[in-house]
Amino acid sequence: MSFDRTETAVVFIDPQVDVLSKSGKNWGAVGASVTENKTVENMLRIFKAAKSAKFAVFISPHYFFPTDRV
For residue 52, what are the contacts with CB-CB under 8 A and spacing of at least 6? Predict the structure, then answer.
């Protein structure tokens, strides 16, 4: 399989500390799954592989607009 670097990118959607960190608010609910699936470690592997292959990497964080809290 081959990829065209001008048409291919790695995109991470909404990675949250509250889910991915032991100090996160939701760790109690999802921590076992994150740990078992090695989510953080695999994200790092993907980042390193993308960098090595010179693919663009985009992170799309979730953002609350002021009007979201009405």
Answer: none
Reduced to 3 states (helix: H, G, I; strand: E, B; else coil), residue 2 is coil
pLDDT for 52-68, tens place per residue? 999 999 999 887 788 87
Which pTM was predicted? 0.79
Q: Is the pLDDT of residue 26 over 80?
A: yes
- Under the banding of pLDDT at 50, 70 and 90, the label for residue 5 is confident
Render 18-45 in DSSP notation, one character per residue. Answer: HHHSTTSTTHHHHHHHHHHTTHHHHHHH
- The token pair that represents 5 in the structure block: 């670097």
From the list 30, 36, 5, 32, the residue with the least C-alpha distance to 15 is 30
Q: What is the CA radius of gyration of the chain?
A: 15
